[in-house]
Amino acid sequence: MIVVSCSHGIHLGSRIARRLKAGHTALKASKFPDGELDIRFTGSPRGKDVVLVQSFCGDINELIVETIFAAATARELGAKKITLAAPYFPYFRQDKRFRKGECVSLHVIGPLFDRYFDRIIVIDPHLHRETTLKHVFRKPSLRLTSNPLIADYIKKHFKNPVLIGPDWESYKWARKVAEMINAESSILEKTRYSSHHVKVRLKDKINLKNRTVVIVDDIISTGHTILETIKNIRKLKPKRIVCICVHGIFAENSLAKIRNAGALVVATNTIPSSVAKIDVGRLLTENL
Ligand code: R5P
Question: Do 2-145+281-285 and 147-269 have matching folds?
């Protein structure tokens, strides 16, 4: 087996290879003067099980091209089997035609990756209207969850917390993690008006006064969901507010905005960042 870190997989790829005692190389990716990508393998994939590690954050669309080019090249160079370990996989939220004429990106991205990979591993995909990865990819796929890791982190760092999920979809993280550590939890009701406009409201009567409130969600992107949740929770006078997410995309400077709102932020390292304190490396390694 050989582990190949793509441009946004380096933070996990080398450690995965070390744990597996497998070879590791970083994909060489640069650009031609006209902006086209130039990618190159530095070790030979011939006859090997190749694991490409890529986290789709930042310039997602460019990374998609890079990853597909890498898989196609590995195949052409004689790889036996090609696995994609994508701790954060993009476009899962675009799972229906929200506006007339819009692309349902999830239905495009699945078949595209199917064509080039033999197996796809994803951590906590945002499955909503599609409920299983089998509806997204035809090739064998594996859906892992970081919930036990988040549960351990909370248990280790916070005493007697209350867990809050900002919307009903977040029960898969907030409520499940709460169950693992026997903590109280509550799921809020969210209405999304646009990418930048959401409203949340508390449904349950819950006493948060002087408590440590841990908001748990799968994704923090623009941060509007979390900021709105913090605003509502503040009214109930908690002692401290912590926000934990699986995938810290932190678009539009949202990390700073959430910190300015007085909350501590923690994420897993499915996407690298300064707050990526929960390591998913072992989880990926154990499932390769
Ligand atoms: C939505 O259903 C997700 O679970 C997150 O709550 C959402 O993607 C967060 O997005 P943003 O940070 O832009 O509000």
Answer: yes
Residue 195 and residue 193: Cα distance in Å, rounded? 7
Cβ–Cβ under 8 Å, residues 265 and 276: no
Q: What is the pTM of this model?
A: 0.94
* Torsion-angle region of 108 (φ positive above 0: left; ψ -120 to 50: alpha; else: beta): alpha
> What number is the average pLDDT over the span 163-168?
93
pLDDT band, very low/low/confident/very high, at 67 (cuts 50, 70, 90): very high
CA dist 105 to 9, 90, 95, 111, Å? 23, 9, 7, 11
Average pLDDT on 117-130 reads 94
Measured in angstroms, how far is the CA atom of residue 268 from the centroid of ligand 1?
A: 16
Nearest CA, atom 7, ligand 1? 219
The answer to whether domain 147-269 has CATH 3.40.50.2020 is: yes
288 touches ligand 1 (CB under 6 Å): no
CATH class name, domain 2-145+281-285: alpha beta
Q: Of 249, 202, 230, which is closest to residue 58 (Cα–Cα)?
A: 249
Give the mutation target among 218, 258, 265, 271 for probing the ligand 1 site: most ligand atoms within 8 A of CB: 218
Identify the band that residue 129 occupies on the pLDDT scale cut at 50, 70 and 90: confident
CA of 225 to the centre of ligand 1 (A): 6
Query: Quick check: CB of 219 below 6 Å from ligand 1?
Result: yes
